[in-house]
Fold this protein.
Amino acid sequence: MAVARFTTDVAFAERMQKEEAFFSKPFLLSYSGLNKLLFSPALFYSHYVLGQREDTEDKNMVEGKLIHCLLLKPESFDEEFVLSAVNTPSDNPKKLLQTLFAHYKELKSSGDTREELHEFNPAILDILTDMNLYQSLKTDAQRLDKIITEDHVAYWEYMKKAEGRTVIDHDTHTFATSVVDKIKSKPNVMDVMGFFGDSFNGITKQNEIELAMFDENFLFGFRGFIDNLVFDSNAKEIRVNDLKKTSKDIGSFTDSIEYYRYWMQAAMYYKMVEHVYLSKAEYADYKISFRFVVVDPYMQIAPIRVSDDTMKEWLVKTDEMLNRANFHFENKSFELPYEFLVNGEIVL
């Protein structure tokens, strides 16, 4: 019983240390962070305060991320993605290579400079012995010949390249490439996103730009990566474009706006653009417009503009959500969603 109490006390002390560290420095809240906090404050606390991150990406998210990359920042593809291996080893050699790769990473972190598969022959032989694999062969050279093959070397290089990147299959890459090609074939979409801009027509664009701001009304700031920001000096307009890959047909995207609270993301981006740019003399007389550029599974692609009146409504709703988030920060209370904390109970 005493041991259990000691363990609990240690866990509590560690949690308090992490909480103190979290609240001791400025925090920039993203749309995804705010969404997580509203959905489950406990999950937000585990993810951001305790650092217990368990984010996963489904097929639709991976496709969307890949389309973003290929359209807006193609030069970063090799940094973010890797195509899955074409020829995967059979079970036993694959298990050996994965065991060896874990050993390779440990050695590398300690300064070992070996990279090639054949440089780990002693370790390969040890693993073969542990697995009782190819032990009927008479010599070590024969056993190594079973492992040091062209396909296995290719798989070894693939594992190294895949480390820290998102692995995508060839069908996903083909689909994303087709979507990007179709987007580029649509003049109205390309025009909205500023791809036809140059010094003569006064249109410039920036892709994948990070913005941040602090607001004295909240105990946190905001941050976000805006997919596409277009500056039109003739129309005196800053266009904020957010590329969305939806799992439903494009006609149902309004449902997704409500379900995923995309209206909140749009409003936060609007606030940041307004804060960062409209405060500058060169943009003082500009207006901001916001669009979702939507891609559905059937490769239907179209921009959806948010009207000024709708954006005003979204800004009011978002301020309410930010006030709820601020309540959690002020009270350092993350056990339950806001409405349960302030009401005690919910009456249906």
Remarks:
- DSSP finds 15 helices and eight strands in the chain.
